[in-house]
Design goal:
The complex is a heterodimer of chains A (131) and B (290). By secondary structure, chain A is an alpha+beta fold. Chain A has six helices and five strands, in the order ααββββααβαα. Chain A has a single domain, classed as Nonspecific Lipid-transfer Protein, Chain A (2-Layer Sandwich), CATH 3.30.1050.10. A five-stranded mixed β-sheet of chain A has the order 3-2-1-4-5. Chain B has eleven helices and eight strands. The chains are: A alpha+beta (131), B alpha/beta (290).
Chain lengths: 131, 290
């Protein structure tokens, strides 16, 4: 599930006008975790430069967004159920979701981070359309 | 020259006495009839009610008045505000609503508030039932845990931009994007620290259970309307508050989030109109009895 979405993430995010607008000054290495799987998403100056699967344990990152697969499954639906609509909703009401590391950097660019995660829904719609 | 689309909303300023201090308050209104006094959410201002104020079906029956709390919108801050962080507290908040109502000669209005406004209407109904013809709480709860966002106080980031992004996500995904963005824009215009200082008011201990049981809904009817998508004021929290008030009406609104009156007014009004209809009959009976 998530592998397909993340593989589409660079193209989808880099094609999004809102992300381009809000992420102009945003650079970070983000660890995205879905159950046992991990990706390292490199953002440089408002563009997703890559999403590397299965990074080594000692690869540094700025902040991590971790949740079990069922949380991401609900979050990435085109119409997510209540409590799974937004990164702040997850943070407040879904204890399985964890936000770690340099969270101040993440919150400085909270709209960009939130938008990137919202775009996982577009990635899912695209892959559902293809499959 | 044709002038089109001039709205009926009229905005004015009033200097009112607030615990010995003159407070300059901005308010706007439309319509005529018994007064519906509207209270905005934390960190926002009365523009959140612009769709209600522009709804002819409402303003034919009600004089709708919405004001900006001190420190919000066009209302001035109070005291030597530059010397200490802004913090809203329940008792002064209650006094402000009462002072505005009295100073503007609003009589015995129906008071309606959202979020923190939804909590203060419960306190007003509990403490001052005879001053109001009804209380409508939108996204209203006696208390809710976990809703403070500590980052809103961090000077190491743009708190206004954060407030905008944060409140964008508090809307339901079904609400039209243009309205969700409008609310976020107003949030971005709040002064730094005000949203956080408003939220501090939720942390105050309040013996809601004992006090809400005392609310006489024959004197001041209470209705609580909450969106199913509100993750801040959970629908369960509203149902819990409603259960504490004998005779309160509770409505859970599908496909609506934390800001019904602005994020999706057309859907919200379907739930609000029957509530207002009931309140209007009560207000008319009160006027007849006086």
């Amino acid at each position: 599930m998530m592998e397909t979405f993340v593989s589409r993430l660079p193209a989808v995010v880099n094609n999004d006008p809102e992300f381009a607008n809000v992420a102009r000054f945003f650079s970070a290495d983000i660890l995205l975790e879905c159950g046992a799987k991990q990706w390292l998403v490199h953002v440089r100056d408002g563009r997703v430069a890559g999403a590397l699967g299965a990074p080594r344990f000692d690869t540094p990152w700025d902040f991590a967004l971790r949740a079990p697969e069922d949380v991401w499954e609900r979050f990435t639906r085109t119409l997510p159920p209540p409590l799974f609509t937004d990164i702040w909703a997850l943070r407040m009401r879904v204890p399985e979701f964890r936000w770690e590391g340099n969270t101040l950097l993440a919150v400085r660019h909270a709209r960009a981070v939130a938008r990137m995660l919202e775009l996982l829904r577009t990635c899912r719609e695209q892959s559902d359309g293809r499959d | 020259m044709a002038v089109t689309d001039v709205e009926h909303i009229v905005g004015r300023y009033a200097s009112i006495d607030l615990a010995g201090e003159r407070a300059r308050i901005y308010f706007e209104e439309a319509g005529s009839g018994p007064v519906l006094l509207c209270l905005h959410t934390a960190g926002a201002d009365s523009r959140q009610y612009r769709y209600l104020l522009n709804d002819p079906e409402i303003t034919r029956a009600w004089r709708v008045v919405a004001f900006d709390l001190p420190f919000h919108g066009r209302s001035a801050p109070l005291g030597r505000w530059w010397e200490s962080p802004y913090r809203l507290q329940a008792a002064p908040y209650e006094r402000i609503v009462l002072a505005v109502s009295e100073s503007l000669n609003l009589g015995r209005p129906v008071v309606m508030g959202c979020s923190m406004g939804g909590q203060i209407v419960l306190r007003l109904a509990a403490h001052h039932a005879a001053r109001f013809a009804g209380a409508i709480g939108i996204e209203s709860a006696a208390y809710v845990t976990g809703r403070v966002n500590e980052y809103l106080e961090n000077p190491g980031l743009d708190r206004c931009e954060l407030a905008a992004g944060y409140t964008l996500g508090l809307c339901a995904p079904q609400s039209p994007e243009i309205f969700r963005r409008e609310n976020a824009w107003y949030y971005a215009q709040g002064a730094p620290g005000v949203y956080a200082g408003d939220l501090a008011f939720y942390g105050e201990p309040w013996n809601a259970q004992a006090e809400l049981a005392q609310v006489d809904t024959n004197v001041c009817p209470v209705a609580l309307l909450t969106g199913e998508y509100d993750y801040s004021c959970l629908p369960e929290a509203t149902q819990q508050a409603g259960a504490m008030i004998p005779g309160a009406r509770v409505v859970i609104m599908p496909e609506i989030g934390h800001f019904p009156m602005i994020e999706h007014y057309q859907r919200f009004r379907e739930h609000l109109l029957p509530v207002l209809h009931g309140m209007r009959q009560h207000a008319a009976a009160l006027a007849g009895a006086e």
